[in-house]
Amino acid sequence: MTSALVDRFDVVVIGAGAAGMMCAATAGQRGRSVLLVEHYPKLGEKIRISGGGRCNFTNLHASPANYLSQNPDFCRSALARYSPRDFIALVERHGIAWHEKKLGQLFCDETAVDIISMLRNECERGRVRWRMPCAVEEIDHVDGVFRVATTQGPVVAAALVIATGGLTVPKIGATPFGYRIAEQFGLRIVAPQPALVPLALDPESLSRYGDLSGVSVDAGVTCKDGRFRENILFTHRGLSGPAVLQISSYWNGGDAIHIDLLPDLVAGAWLASQRTSATRMDTLLGQRLPKRLAQQWCAAHDAALPLQQLGDKRIAELAELLHDWAVWPSGTLGYNKAEVTLGGVDTRELSSKTMAATRVPGLYFIGEVVDVTGHLGGYNFQWAWASGHAAGEAV
Ligand code: FDA
User: Fold this and answer.
1) Which residues in the chain come in under a pLDDT of 70?
2) From 102, 164, 179, 376, mutation site for ligand 1 pocket: most ligand atoms within 8 A of C-beta
3) pLDDT one-digit tens code per residue, 45-54
4) Residue 380 Cβ < 6 Å to ligand 1
5) How far is residue 391's CA from residue 23's CA, in Å, rounded to a whole number?
6) Measured from the CB, is residue 173 less than 6 Å from ligand 1?
7) Which of 37, 188, 218, 362 suits 203 as a labelling partner, its CA being 20 to 30 A distant?
8) What is the pLDDT of residue 96?
9) How far is residue 307's CA from residue 315's CA, in Å, rounded to a whole number?
10) Among 273, 6, 17, 290, which Cα is nearest to 164's?
11) What residue ranges define each of the domains in the chain, with the CATH number in brackets?
12) What pLDDT is attached to residue 330?
């Protein structure tokens, strides 16, 4: 790079998503000269499509317990220093109306585009410069300075922030760029995998339950340390709905997920009280579950008989199965349908206060590219804001 033609900044941020824009605005408003580089032609696409177009931008109850990571404490400091209240205050300063939908999940009243405009305005307040669409071709680190070759010419900066997100929804700009840069600098990566993603069922299970596509039921779902109580949704490819998306973050190939179809009931006592009844089990279950689900579930468990014919032992077994129906998914629907990527830059490589790589002075990783993954419900954006803010204060 010829130095006379090279633009110089204090900070270059690569990736103008949620974390990148928050970081750039924070650093710019502290008086740093900041360049934000984005390769996709549209700004904040993931924000735009989030929360069904209304962006579930935070969760009132965000705490480290809502995040998965090899180091569950890593997110604590950043979340404490930039809380949901801080983001709500920002949203309110911009006159964006919001509401709580359920479980502390906050959404825009109007449209997610309001959040994108807000972040762009905050960047303008910080005099952030943009290159977009602009691809990064090469990064070198020489004499403590980062040299970034882009399709719009080279830039140098003392601080380089990687905010390129995870691998979900590649058609709107996701790339493995952040992991490649981490590898280039010798930093460890926790293997990425799709999370908050629908689970697929094998053809045999689909021949039983595929017809239930569209049926939804309130259930408890567990897998390893994960335990959620929300709806599950049957689809033509398997299982989805909030409880299944949540549990997918805990699921690895080969595991069973355990479904409690009657979480508010002691099924053993209820069924025992009906044990002499001539009513068929599927009819009875149809009083508590969607009828088609009751029928298919009973057919699959050879239980579509009058209760008096089933006998006490079988009734007790079925009651147990209703509370602990083990289902073995055959896979996930992958990065095209996932909301987030589990894994990423290993938090052992980063300072939890600043997001700086401890072994590479001036290099920062923020947002989803880091091995911190939130539950469904606004937690992932809160991590993007909090980690972006932490780095923006430090660069
Ligand atoms: P993000 O992916 O937002 O941004 C990364 C940016 O880097 C992108 O603009 C990308 O184009 C750019 N980039 C990638 N490679 C690059 C390269 N090589 N060069 C330059 N730029 C590059 N979360 C939540 O809390 N509430 C919600 O309602 C939802 N809803 C939701 C719906 C759907 C359909 C999805 C897919 C995801 C969600 N999420 C969510 C998750 C949330 O969108 C996600 O966790 C954050 O956007 C992560 O923010 P980041 O800034 O880290 O990455």
Assistant:
1) 1-5
2) 164
3) 999 999 999 9
4) yes
5) 6
6) yes
7) 218
8) 98
9) 8
10) 17
11) 3-194+341-394 (3.50.50.60), 199-332 (2.40.30.10)
12) 97
Predicted pLDDT of residue 138: 97
Question: Is the sign of the CA dihedral 53, 58, 60, 65 positive or negative?
Answer: positive
Q: Whose CA is nearest to atom 30 of ligand 1?
A: 50
Q: What's the whole-model pTM score?
A: 0.96
**Is 243 within 8 Å of 222 (Cβ atoms)?**
no
Question: What is the Cα–Cα distance from 55 to 16, expressed in whole angstroms?
Answer: 17
Ordered alpha helix ranges (H), the chain: 18-29, 45-49, 76-81, 84-93, 113-125, 177-184, 203-209, 242-248, 267-272, 281-285, 291-300, 307-310, 312-323, 379-394
Q: Which of 266, 306, 262, 270 is nearest to 288 (CA)?
A: 262
Residue type, 202: D
When computed from its CA atoms, the radius of gyration of the chain, rounded to whole angstroms, is 25
Beta strands in 163-263 (DSSP E): 189-195, 199-200, 216-223, 226-234, 238-240, 257-260
Q: Are residues 251 and 257 in contact, defined by beta-carbon separation less than 8 angstroms?
A: yes
